[in-house]
Amino acid sequence: MIELLFGLRAPQEGRIKVLGHTLPITSGKERLALCKQIQLIPQEPHTSLNPYYTVAQVLIEPLESLGIEATTSKKPKEHWKKLGFDQSYWP
């Protein structure tokens, strides 16, 4: 299913619609709009988290890949604070 959602494989029959978008999406602008609404959430942290990233980088990277300036955004910093991390370590 993931391969179909990300356009790595085409359906053998019929078509797939997600939030009103017919897949695969060829327009970069349309794909970005859809990616802002849905995300893959990996279930295995040992293989999905980069051990060289800080926690802050893990929080920021997905947002910045969607064009959201996360280092100046309040949301990641608010979550950082809620988790009890020392604010001096925020980038």
UniProtKB/TrEMBL annotation:
InterPro entries xrefs: P-loop_NTPase
Q: Which UniProt keywords apply?
A: ATP-binding, Nucleotide-binding
Top-level taxonomic group: Bacteria
For this protein, what is any one GO molecular function term? ATP binding
Name of the molecule in the record: Oligopeptide transport ATP-binding protein OppF
Q: Which organism is it from?
A: Vibrio maritimus
